[in-house]
Amino acid sequence: MELSSLYVTVIEPSKVQRHIITGHLNSYGITNIDEFTEAKPALTHMLTSPPDIVLSSMHLPDMTGTDLVTQMRGLERLENVTFLLISSETHYRYLEPIRQAGAIAILPKPFSRAEMGMALRSTLDYITDFESDNDSDAYDALRVLVVDDSSLSRKYIKQMLESLSIQSIETAKDGAEALQLIDQGYRFDLIITDYNMPNVDGKELTEHIRNHSEQPTVPILMITSEQNESRLAAVQSAGVSALCSKPLSYDTVKQLIEQLVTDCDL
User: Fold this and answer.
1) Is the peptide bond before 51 cis (omega within 30 degrees of 0)?
2) Furthest-apart CA atoms within the chain: distance in Å
């Protein structure tokens, strides 16, 4: 599968911005593009013809990009469609739900052709792996725990893992629930956890696993939108194996998982 074969839906009220976006897409050989100025007609059309990726602005005439991706994740035909936000928005209230829902990327306005290309290639890799008939059993025995207080985020991460042919996946809505599973004797080869969670956060979960559990060496991949450097340093000191920022790049997550799994004894 090539970039040129991607089917793209663009939702952008500005004619000028749509022209810029489609121009970048055309430069990668992508011509199968549906253009909309509002979200509702786009959703109706996508239910009939699901695209490979949606490129959307944040502030649309009939809803926000946050509302759009949330509705998509609740629809069976659109729940696996990758979502790329193009926006100059910086407010946490708008961006955090987009990160939690599993956007493939958030591009600022203005953005470069290269930045869009990275997001498109990540989408292509995700689709290729998700639809692959690869019979490799490299990850068949891998047992993974996903910990995140966002159900949308848990679902998106699980889809990523399944695209890598990982089938043994447990989920927990916070660190406290994850610790219950660990204390009950569940053993994992990899733990993927959010940082900011109620009850027991990712840092506290990591510290407990490293200091008080029967599997202190299990690789821990922490996913976070945290920007505070001192907090991130404290997380690293707690013993995480790797940090990954939201929104999640499929390629980055895939590479980190491969690296962490290769470095541990299954």
Assistant:
1) no
2) 58
Do 7 and 125 belong together in one domain?
yes
Report if residue 136 sits inside a domain. no
Query: pLDDT per residue over 110-144, tens digit each?
Result: 888 898 898 898 888 888 877 765 445 667 788 99
Amino acid in the structure at residue 238:
A
What are the strands of the beta sheet with 143-147, ordered from one edge?
Answer: 168-172, 143-147, 190-194, 220-224, 242-245
Helix (H, G, I), strand (E, B) or coil at 11: strand
pTM of the model: 0.72
List the beta bridge partners of residue 55: 10, 84
Domain carrying residue 215: 143-263
